[in-house]
Design brief:
Distance between the termini: 28 Å
Helix content: under 10%
Radius of gyration: 20 Å
Number of strands: 29
Number of helices: 3
Shape: globular
Structural class: mainly beta
């Protein structure tokens, strides 16, 4: 079922606006953790390659899911997904860009996490209408799919360019937040979402903080206030400029666009509890120079905003650059420190640690920096930098690899320590590749590190697939 509200009606309506809800389905007992698609207690790794050629269709896009194991992501157990995969809706077409954004949650609470895949280039009611596909988890991994509801297709384009999942309206069901361009820049699709059931309503909003031509370009979420339901961090570009704009929203509030909290401007973010106080914290990456964005910095920066009972704590912020005491390296023009950020507990001490990608480092060969959390917040003690030239890391640093363009901290081994996956979408002239490093009680280790690219996981290297353009969020 698809409901539409025209642009004219949207302009006359209050924003956000909503569709009536149907009665929710009953809840299952226990939901799986995100990205644990086969329910084995280990998170799996989803890798987006939106530039992949599929059946001769350039930039149709593909996603590889590599399943977790006791030693990390295991490429011999994997699932390749395209819009030509049996059971997936649609058809692979040139420019669809399937795999541009990824998110995961156990949407139908059956004990298996499900995968959300954004395809912002899909043509629907108009060019680049966009679509989102739900691929269902099961004991044998991902199998079967349906299209996520798209209520306002005449009022946005590039639906699915950003994704997040969580119980955003605090009603006990998992919802999906979707970024797009146009008059509607954020859509909330209400749960529960099931394999065959009807939709349960949704809402869409616009906001004059950011330009509709860019829309909402990135989403992250977490329990910032410690009350058990997640808030959403939204990224876009400021109105009438190309500068970053970032906000924090509680989607439980009907008119949340009037209650957005402004955050330090950046293009990506990650959420996790760095100091273990029960409030998730936010790391915002801005990898641009001040000449390109006044909120940027020489070589890029990351701003850590600590959470509290009312959202962000305005009295606790930490700005990090490569010139910060204790951070390896030095800030240089074009380093792009903050191109990717992720928070996760690498050493199992109960505090989220921060990984920062600097995809422009050394002629865009790229690097990542690891900083550890503590009861007092993020610390530069034990901070380390990694490149493809670091002992134990496979491969070698080459100009244009963009190692660190995307990073994710996820427990692939089931030992309750986050492992690091790093993407270099520029590796091998745009083929792309992903590296995986284990988390241990002593921190990240390069011992046993692995890497793999599109060929290993069944993705065509025709054109420039950009393997790793999207990773677990």
């Amino acid at each position: 079922m698809r409901s539409r509200i025209t642009s004219a009606a949207l302009a006359a309506a209050l924003t956000p606006f909503a569709l009536a809800l149907t009665a929710p389905a009953a809840h299952a007992a226990t939901a799986a953790a995100p990205y644990d698609f086969n329910g084995d207690g280990r998170a799996d790794l989803a890798v987006g390659a939106p530039g992949a050629t599929v059946a001769g269709q350039a930039k149709a896009g593909a996603v590889t899911v590599v399943y977790g194991s006791s030693t990390g992501p295991k490429t011999s157990t994997r699932t390749l997904l395209t819009q030509n995969t049996a059971g997936l809706p649609g058809t692979a077409e040139a420019g669809d860009a399937f795999g541009s954004a990824l998110a995961s949650a156990d949407l139908n609470t059956d004990g298996y996490a499900d995968l959300l895949v954004g395809t912002p280039g899909e043509d629907g009611s108009d060019t680049n209408d966009g679509t989102v596909t739900i691929v269902w988890g099961s004991a044998s991994g991902l199998s079967g799919a349906r299209t996520l509801f798209s209520f306002f297709s005449t009022d946005y384009d590039r639906y699915g360019q950003a994704l997040a999942a969580g119980d955003f309206d605090a009603d006990g069901d998992t919802d999906v937040a979707v970024g797009s361009t146009g008059p509607v820049t954020l859509s909330l699709v209400a749960g529960p979402l099931t394999r065959t059931g009807p939709h349960n309503g949704g809402s869409g909003s616009r906001n004059d903080w950011w330009a509709s031509s860019y829309g909402v370009t990135h989403l992250s979420s977490g329990d910032i206030t410690g009350d058990g339901h997640p808030w959403v961090v939204l990224h876009g570009r400021a109105l009438n400029s190309d500068d970053a704009a970032t906000g924090l929203a509680d989607l439980k509030i009907g008119n949340y666009v009037d209650w957005l909290q402004k955050l330090p401007a950046g293009y990506v973010s990650a959420v996790g509890d760095i100091d273990g106080d029960g409030y998730d914290d936010i790391a915002v990456g801005n990898d641009r120079e001040t000449s390109a964005d006044p909120a940027g910095a020489l070589g890029g920066k990351v701003t850590v905003v600590y959470g509290g009972p009312d959202g962000q704590d305005p009295d606790r912020r930490l700005v990090l650059t490569q010139d910060t005491a204790g951070v390896p390296g030095a800030s240089e023009a074009g380093d792009r420190f903050g191109s990717g950020v992720s928070l996760g507990d690498v050493d199992g001490d109960g505090h989220a640690d921060l990984v920062v990608g600097a995809a422009g480092e050394n002629g865009a060969a790229g690097s990542v920096t690891v900083l550890y959390g503590s009861a007092n917040g993020l610390t530069t003690q034990r901070a380390t930098a990694l490149t493809q030239n670091t002992a134990g890391v496979p491969g070698g640093s080459e100009t244009g690899d963009r190692f660190g363009e995307r990073v994710t901290l996820t427990d692939h081994t089931g030992d309750r320590r986050a492992d690091l996956s790093v993407a270099a979408p520029g590796e091998n002239a745009g083929d792309g590749a992903v590296w995986s490093l284990r988390g241990t009680a002593g921190g990240l280790t390069t011992t046993g590190s692995t890497s793999f690219g599109p060929t290993t996981t069944g993705v065509s290297t025709a054109g420039t697939p950009g393997y790793g353009t999207a990773l677990n969020s």
